[in-house]
Amino acid sequence: MIEKLQEFIKLAEALDKEAVIVSDDEFDPVKTITYPKPWIVLGCGNYAAVFAHPDHMDYVVKIYGRAKEGIKDEIEVYSRLGRHRGYSQCYYYGERFLVLKRIFGTTLFDCVHKGMKIEPTIIDEIDAALDYARQRGLYPHDVHGKNVMISNGHGVIVDVSDFLVKEDCGKWKDLKAAYHKLYRHTLYRFPIKIPYNVLNVVRIGYRWYRKISKIGKKGTKN
């Protein structure tokens, strides 16, 4: 395993030099402009893009496209988390990239899109993983449907980049409320596939709801 990891790290360092990743808007995912073959893009978040190599299925490379100074925080978060079933692991890092354990599975967002059932145990396991993070002196932040995955029947949090942000974040609380009050009585009982364009409308609507709620809270305090 050590030899495989060392080989992958060399490939990751080469990828880091060639990959061009840009960010047009801080609220939208970064974009990959160019990267060498045979690397594939697994996904893009607001800060970074995640790459996989077909010859090394156990690891991924996460390369920051913006807010690159944030990588130091993510390294610290993984250091505090150590090994836990509810999270990935960081094996190596460079100036703007991390080598992480690859998690295979389906995000909650994609589960709804594909009509896959999300069992209550998944929600409970995510809660337990978040409690574990708090016990490690972290502040779970930005935990939502695209950052939570079902892997081998278990709940896993795949993005911890904001776990040092000491700011109240109600995304997971809101998602749980929607799960118990709405999902359990509808899509859980009668699974159907929901198109991405419908889900994206909900996602954008929720973003505006959060903005308006923050403005309302500030106004109340004043």
Automatic annotation (TrEMBL):
<protein>
    <submittedName>
        <fullName>Serine/threonine protein kinase</fullName>
    </submittedName>
</protein>
<dbReference type="InterPro" id="IPR011009">
    <property type="entry name" value="Kinase-like_dom_sf"/>
</dbReference>
<dbReference type="InterPro" id="IPR052396">
    <property type="entry name" value="Meiotic_Drive_Suppr_Kinase"/>
</dbReference>
<dbReference type="GO" id="GO:0004674">
    <property type="term" value="F:protein serine/threonine kinase activity"/>
</dbReference>
<keyword id="KW-0808">Transferase</keyword>
<keyword id="KW-0418">Kinase</keyword>
<keyword id="KW-0723">Serine/threonine-protein kinase</keyword>
